[in-house]
């Protein structure tokens, strides 16, 4: 698994954060996974961390290290940004300051998420599909936390509430407190940290989809960042296709992050939007500015009506893959992922109306 987790401020240009998917069209053909057993544990690190005795830091942290041997160092060093080379007294002071300043966030998380039974149940169901397609995939334990509310994890080139370690999937509850949480509504927060069009998805309904996006990237990493626009669109679309197969019953609005109006607009204007794209852009460009206009988080797509969603290039990539799969129903999930993007594009003969 990917073990890189960087604390990064979420500012200015937004990278591709949540992989989107527009259809659950394979629901009727989803495999039977009832005979697959998943042993999944969910540990609530935030409860243990915020309950430590701040007057007895060393024994408290020793106990935490014993319970969370791989997670605690990542939380302290990469998430809180505490340099382990610094003086111990300074490190303890920084931890106390974080607990004091963020206790209200933790308290809100306990009210919004008094238990995670539903999340665990839905995650187990999703991992059954993961194991169906990838029997040898190791299902990680899940560890929830409450970290800085101004920092998302960086996994590869994406910023996300979730992150993978060597043996765990981390879930940051500070990004699932409901769209109306006071911090998310703060004007400075929206201007400098996370804009409203993104924090709209900071709700518990998105937790399983976000987790599966991380798992999909672990199984099929996106390595297309230096490739052409059309190749990046399709490679990212492959991840959506993978997630779709892991959570086939999840509503489109949850997986995509699109509003219902954006979904409706995209479906109704697929042909016109595609015509605009191929008229105004070279599908084989490698220009980062051109690519960012169509791939990446944004309130809408530049040059298109404000009713359009951002990241529409990834949606087109998924639609191209869907068209290709419809023409090649004999292909397995793994075979689709292994097919070069240009081959998929050429053979799909994607011509939306």
Task: Explain how this protein is built.
The chain has 353 residues and is of the alpha/beta class. 50% of the residues lie in helices and 8% in strands. The chain has 17 helices and seven strands. It has helices spanning 45-50, 57-67, 71-79, 88-112, 117-133, 182-185, 187-192, 196-199, 207-219, 229-246, 252-256, 260-268, 270-280, 288-294, 312-327, 333-338, 341-348, and strands at residues 6-9, 42-44, 141-145, 151-155, 158-160, 162-164, 168-172. The strands form two sheets. A four-stranded mixed sheet has the order 2-3-7-6. Helix 10 (229-246) packs across helix 17. The protein is globular, with a radius of gyration of 21 Å. Mean pLDDT is 89; it is low at 1-26.
Structural class: alpha/beta
- List low-pLDDT spans: 1-26
The helix content is 40-55%
Mean pLDDT: 89
Roughly how many Å is the radius of gyration? 21 Å
Number of strands: 7
Distance between the termini: 41 Å
> Treating each run of at least 4 consecutive H or I residues as one helix, how many helices?
17
How would you write the strand order of the largest sheet?
2-3-7-6
Strand content: 5-15%
Largest sheet: 4 strands, mixed
Q: What would the keywords be for this entry?
A:
353 residues, alpha/beta
């Amino acid at each position: 698994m990917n073990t890189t987790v960087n604390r990064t401020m979420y500012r200015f240009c937004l990278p591709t954060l949540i992989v989107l998917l527009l259809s659950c069209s394979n629901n009727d053909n989803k495999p039977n996974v009832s005979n697959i057993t998943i042993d999944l544990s969910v540990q609530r690190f935030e409860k243990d961390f915020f309950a430590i005795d701040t007057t007895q830091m060393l024994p408290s942290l020793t106990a935490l290290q014993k319970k969370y041997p791989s997670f605690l160092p990542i939380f302290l060093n990469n998430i809180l940004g505490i340099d382990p080379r610094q003086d111990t007294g300074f490190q303890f002071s920084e931890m106390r300051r974080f607990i004091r300043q963020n206790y209200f966030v933790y308290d809100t998380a306990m009210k919004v998420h008094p238990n995670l039974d539903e999340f665990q149940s839905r995650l187990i169901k999703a991992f059954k599909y993961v194991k169906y397609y990838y029997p040898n995939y190791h299902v990680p334990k899940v560890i929830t936390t409450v970290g800085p509310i101004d920092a998302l994890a960086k996994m590869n080139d994406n910023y996300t509430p979730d992150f993978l370690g060597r043996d765990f999937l981390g879930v940051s509850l500070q990004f699932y407190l409901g769209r109306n949480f006071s911090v998310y509504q703060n004007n400075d927060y929206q201007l400098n940290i996370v804009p409203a069009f993104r924090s709209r998805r900071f709700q518990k309904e998105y937790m399983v989809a976000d987790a599966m996006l991380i798992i999909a990237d672990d199984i099929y990493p996106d390595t297309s960042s230096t490739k052409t626009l059309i190749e990046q669109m399709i490679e990212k679309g492959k991840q959506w296709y993978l997630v779709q197969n892991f959570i086939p019953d999840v509503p489109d609005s949850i997986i995509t992050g699109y509003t219902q109006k954006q979904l409706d607009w995209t479906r109704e204007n697929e042909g016109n939007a595609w015509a605009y794209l191929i008229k105004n852009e070279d599908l084989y460009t490698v220009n980062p500015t051109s690519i960012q206009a169509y791939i990446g988080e944004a309130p809408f797509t530049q040059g298109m009506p404000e009713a359009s969603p951002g990241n529409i290039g990834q949606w087109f990539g998924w639609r191209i893959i869907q068209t290709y799969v419809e023409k090649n129903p004999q292909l397995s999930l793994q075979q689709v992922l292994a097919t070069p993007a240009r081959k998929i594009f050429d053979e799909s003969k994607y011509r939306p109306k």
